[in-house]
Amino acid sequence: MTLIFRTIEEVRAWRHSLPANQTVGFVPTMGALHAGHISLMELAKARSGVALASIFVNPLQFGPGEDLARYPRPLEQDLSLLQAAGVDALFLPAVDELYPAGASTFVIEESVSGPLCGALRPGHFRGVTTVVLKLFNIVQPHIAVFGQKDAQQCAVIERMVRDLAVPVEIIRGPIIREADGLALSSRNVYLKPEERPAARLLFASLTAAKQAFEAGERNAARLTEIAEAMLQGQPGISLQYWDVRDARTLQPVAAAMPGETLFAVAAMVGTTRLIDNMTV
Ligand code: AMP
Q1: Which of 30, 56, 132, 280 has the most other CB atoms within 10 Å of its CB?
Q2: 7-17 pLDDT, tens per residue?
Q3: Can you tell me which atom of ligand 1 is nearest the CA of 187?
Q4: What is the pLDDT of residues 212-228, one digit of tens each?
Q5: How far is the CA of 32 from the centre of ligand 1 (A)?
Q6: Superfamily of domain 3-173
Q7: Cα distance between residue 66 and residue 61, in whole Å
C-alpha cells in the first residue's frame, strides 16, 4: 500500500517513525510515470528497502512559453504504477506547500548548469536545484536516484551535493528506451504518430556517433559531423544541439575519451522538445 502525503509535516512524521537504521531511497519526479521512472523506483527499493517517490510539476523549472500548463498529470494511473512497483510512500505536494508566498531563497549551481539545456532554458537548473535540495531537506533520504536520461541534471545535482556537503548519495539509473530506441519521456505523449520517425533520429544519431567512436574515431568535431549529418535536412526535426562533452563537467572536449565522454542531443520535433544522450 503506497501511503500518500500532501504536506511537509506528514512526510516528516512518517520519516521520523522509521527505525533509525532504516535506509531510505528517494525518487523525485514530475509524474506521468513510465517504465523509466519505475526502473528508478526499483533501484531505490533494491538499494534501501524503503522507497519514497515525489510527484511535483515544479513551476520554477519551466520557462515562459514552455509546457507547464499542458504537462500531463494522469494521477490515477501514476498511483497504480507506484503501487505495482511496491513504492512505500508518495509525496504529492501542492505548489503553495513547497513554495510559500514570497519564497525568495534559491539554489544556483553556476558551472555545470551553464551549457546545453542550461543555455537554452535560462533558470531551468536553478528551479531543479532549488526543488531538489528542498525535497532532500524534507525527505532526508540516504540515497536518491536520478535518470541518466537527464545527464546534465544528474551532473548538476552531483555537483550541488558535493559543493554543499548534502548527505545524500546520488545514484544514476540507465536510460530506458522504446523498442525503436526512442528514450521514454513523459513528453512523448505530445508526439503525433507522423512525428515518431523524426523522434527516433535522436537515438540513431547517437548510435552512429558511438559506432564511429568504437571504430576508433576520437575527434569531437568529426563525431559531431557524423551525428548531425543524420539529422540535418530531415523533415519535422529542428536540432538545438548535438555535442561532445566531458560527462562530469559538461565542458566541451576536443577528443572523446572512453569512460569520460557524453554525447548529448536536443531537438524540437514538431512542438515537442526532446533530449537524449549516450556515454562512451
Ligand atoms: P521527470 O518526471 O521527467 O522529472 O523525471 C523524473 C526522473 O526520471 C528523472 O531523474 C529522470 O531523469 C528520470 N527519467 C526520465 N525518463 C527516463 C528514462 N527514459 N529512463 C530512465 N530514467 C528516466
Answers
A1: 132
A2: 999 999 999 99
A3: 3
A4: 999 999 999 999 999 99
A5: 10
A6: HUPs (3.40.50.620)
A7: 10
